[in-house]
Automatic annotation (TrEMBL):
PANTHER family referenced in this protein's UniProt entry, alphabetically: AAA+ ATPASE DOMAIN-CONTAINING PROTEIN-RELATED, ATP/GTP-BINDING PROTEIN-RELATED
Record protein name field: Uncharacterized protein
GO molecular function: catalytic activity
Signal peptide region: none
A single GO BP: nucleoside metabolic process
């Protein structure tokens, strides 16, 4: 439990499968302690030397409340988590500036006083469009630095994204 510093929450099994395919190395399951009161099942592994605990919401449970429950149980069990990520299929990315389509990979980034993620139940529809009524916190500085590095690698033609996509395609269609 002490070796994992990144918590990764997925909403759907397809997201969990993709997350597991991204791991450089998979680790054996955590030993379960019935006294812990943690009902999560973890997929464990590492990416670039960072140990990651991945959990998926229970089948049929979606939304903020189940996600909060899963994340709370994860933090209680995997005590050294420094960063929590929610990675998955976006519900919608409306934009007049960017052509974003189903299947595209989108990484949010802070802009101005808002974090990169927009929670649409923290807003309201107005005659002139969507108006935010709240905002989620921005990611920590160190994660924003990683996003900058990933983007720089992509600009230099050193992205591993195509490699990961090919790996996922080959594993699902042998």
């Amino acid at each position: 439990h002490e070796d994992y510093t990144v918590g990764w929450v997925c909403a759907l099994p397809v997201e969990l499968a993709a997350a597991q395919e991204m791991l450089d190395e998979e680790h054996s399951d955590l030993e379960r302690d019935p006294a812990d009161n943690d009902e999560n099942l973890y997929a464990l592994g590492s990416i670039s030397g960072h140990n990651i605990a991945i959990v998926c919401l229970p089948a049929g449970r979606i939304g903020n409340n189940p996600a909060a429950s899963v994340a709370t149980q994860m933090r209680a069990t995997v005590k050294k988590i420094r960063f929590g990520l929610v990675v998955g299929i976006g519900g919608g990315v409306p934009s007049t500036e960017a052509d974003v389509r189903l299947g595209d990979v989108v990484v949010s980034q802070s802009k101005g006083k808002h974090g990169g993620v927009v929670q649409y139940d923290s807003g309201k529809a107005t005659a002139s469009g969507f108006e935010r009524t709240g905002a989620l916190n921005s990611p920590p500085q160190v994660l924003l630095a990683v996003v900058a590095r990933v983007r720089a690698n992509e600009l230099r033609g050193r992205s591993k994204l195509c490699e990961h996509i090919t790996k996922i395609q080959l594993s699902s269609h042998p």
